[in-house]
Structure formats: C-alpha cells, structure tokens
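Changelog note: in this version the structure field was regenerated for every chain. One regenerated record is shown below for reference.
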Amino acid sequence: MGLFRPLAIASPNDERVWDPPRYSLRSKAGVPINAQSILGISAVWACTRLISQSLASIPLLMYERQTDGGRRRASGHPLYDLLHDQPNASMTAFEFKRLLTMHALLRGNGYARILPGPRGLVDHLVPLHPDSVTPEPVDDERLRYRIKRSGQPDEVLADDEVFHLVGLSWDGRVGVSVIEYARETMGLALATESHGARLFGQGISLAGVVEVPRETKITQQGAQNLRMDLETQHAGLGNAHSVMVLADGATWKPMGLTSEDSQFLETRQFQVAEVARWFGVDLTLIQENTKATSWGTGIEQLLQAFVTFTLLPWAVLWEQAISRDMVVAPQRYFPEYQLNSLVRGDLLARYQAYDLAVKGGWKSRNEVRQLENDNPVPGLDDYDRPLNVASIGQPEPVVAQPQGRREAHYSQLLREAAGRVVRKEQAALERASRHCKQDSADWAQAVDEFYADHASYVAAALAIPAATAELYVTGQKLTLLERGPGAVEDWLPARIEHLVQLAEAN
C-alpha cells in the first residue's frame, strides 16, 4: 500500500540535515549571538544540559485507559517503542528527546518529520534542524512546514507530517527564540568571557613585588638570581608556609585584587544568575553556590521545586504535542512522563502521609494506589469514616425547579456533550482522511482503530446505555466505510443532531 511505502530521506547524521542557513544577532556589547556561540557560556550550557538531559532520562510511556478508570501500559502500541526505545535508525529515545528539547529551549521550536511504515502512520521520527524549517500558515488552524536543504529544492510538509514541539509563543503555533530576547544578557556574558580571556592572555598579573632600598645597588643579573631563588624556595604547594629571608633591606609586598578585578568577578557572577533566570533554573542546580537558594532548604525541596516549576511544564508540553500530532485515538491512548519517582520523597514520610489521608476519610485506598502508579483494586474505593466525627458524604438539599426550566437546562447540557463527542470524531477522522486519501484499506483500518473503544466514551459522555452507544458506533462505522474519507466533510451538524435525538430517546 502506498501509505506505508518507506521514504528515502537523509540520515540525522547527514550534514545536509544539520547545515541550515546560519545567522547571528548582534548584541549591544558588540558580540554576535547565535545558538553555537551562547553554548560557550557555561551557565547556558549547564541550564540547557540540565533540562534536556533530565527530561530525556525520565521514561515516556504510552498508556491505554481502562473501563474501570484505571490504565495499563500499552506496550503493543506503535508509539511505545518509538518514545521509549528508538525513534529512528540512528538515535535512541534519550538522544531524540534531549535534542528536540534543546532545540525548543534555544530556538523556541523542536521539529521531527513523521514517516509512515510497517508500524502504521508513525513508524519513524527524524529530527529537523529548526533553522531549516519555516512554518507557514494554511488557515486559522493548520500550518505547513517549508524545509530548506543545502543545495536542494525546498520541500513542503503538511502539519500531519511533522511533530512540532512549541516553546513559549506569541500565537500558540510557533515558538519564539530565547536567543533573540536574551541577546543582551548573552552578549554581555560572552563579552565578559572574552574580556577575561584577553586579560589573562595579554595583561600583566603579579603575585607580589620585592622592593629594594634606593641606596642598595642591584644589577640585572642580581635581580634575576633573586627572582629564581624566590621561585625555587617559596613557589609551589611543597613550599607553602615556608619562611622567607631577604637580605640587604629588601621587603616583599603581595599584590591583591584591584577594584577592576573585583568588579569583573562580580559581573561574571551576576551574568550567571541572569542566564539561569531566562531558563527557570535555580543557581544551586548549575553549581553556583555563592548565594542561598530561594527554592527550599533541603535537597528534597529543591528537587520538588525543579520538577514542579521547570520540568513539569516541558513534560506536559511533550505529552500534549504527542497526543495532538501522533495519537489517532487520544480518548483511548495517551502518553505520560513518569515524574512521580522524582517527587515522592522518602518512603516512610510518603506512607505516613497516605495513612493519615486514608484514616482521615478524604482519600480512598485506590486513590493512594493511583498516586503510586498502581492500578485500582476492587473493593478499595470506599472512604473510611472516623468514629468520633459526623458521617461524610451527606447529600446537599435539592431545590426544586420548574419543570420547563429543568428540561431546557438538560437539553442544553445534552447538546454540549453531543458536540464534544462529534468534534472528537471529526478531528480524528479528518486526520485519518488526509493520511489515507483514496486508499480504502487504510481508511477501514483507521476507522476500526478509532471506534474500537469509542462506545464507552459515548455512553459516559451522554449518560446513555452501553448497548445504545454500541448501536450508534456501529452505524457511524458503516456510514464511514460506505462513503469513504469524503464523509467527514459534512459530519458535524448532522451527527450532533443525531446524537441528541438518540440520547433523548433513552
């Protein structure tokens, strides 16, 4: 089938992929700023490495929702291997996630080309350098991506052919580059580094001087012998704290830091804090310990703050971008980073907190199991009730409403719920139709996969019997298979009305 025909593209190790048109921004400090130059700043390197490698080292797994509210690992899903093991022939999952996160950190966008193959619509993920990709709007909701290759014609990819990780953004569709907005901070840091290098490479820095009285005559050879004698007897670790004896009235005067030297060191320390602020990283985490941290007083609190304020937003960004760009049935399958292991705290304190929550009656044992990433167990959904307090869960008094008002309210809620169901169907089917085009076998496979567990979602959303929801799903599948991908063009209005009528009849 044409849909799964392998495509010949350059390897991620091919220099054509990593040789985009280069550009630099000029800072007021007179230093050119680009992704390569700012990585020469130790604070930028440390922040970028910390965030990208931390996120890449955390398992990113696919899960399948269960009818009892639990979930199980979907190890048979095609995306499971791509995200957990190897997204393409030359990169591990760690390398892939680290690279795209670094691109998004520095350039505001991380891109990967989605290639179909034996495993389905997403068989390979090949990274694209952000400097070589130009997003172009197609309409208010869709983008296309123009790929520039050195010495080759431009290639245009549709939005369902590109995985797009969007950083901080003005419009929610294309991220902005931290290099552009932080150019003065980065420029000053680079200029300070360059100044320090020239100072030590070209300047004169003395540990001390030997002063000789004016009446003492000393030849050039005598001065040379005195210097060699001082270095032999007092320089180096082995001669530390030795006693210096000077003849003929000579005295030793050590040289301290000048005010210019002190100001230079303060400027360097300040630029480290400025860079860390751009990336949202505490100074302690990048080995800058001259100032106290404001994120907590212990390692556990510091790690909790790092996960909450720095890693969690990036993890959610990855999860939702994967669901949007690569998951055909997001109501059934979903990706999730395993962040719990980083923020659980020590075992004893965690279990003591769970014990208080269960005995206090505000958490069930199954809720505790879910916090520990365990599936629910039948019979553990009940809440305990302390004997010395009043019973919990008493129903609120119901205020009677006029019959007509209740019916209108119910009708509005029903129509909104039906709209949510149909919009989910339309989004998934439009994506499948763009992939499948006129291939009936691929269309049938996509329809079967989407509707495999859709009946339970319909029944829950509309509060209708499971048998009625199954009947609805069967009718949808027959219509779609009969009419083909073109059936989704007028899907929304007719399907909403059909669902409302179906729910009202039950």
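Spot check on this record: DSSP finds 17 helices and 13 strands in the chain. The chain has four domains: 1-203+263-343, 207-232+244-254, 348-394, 405-504.
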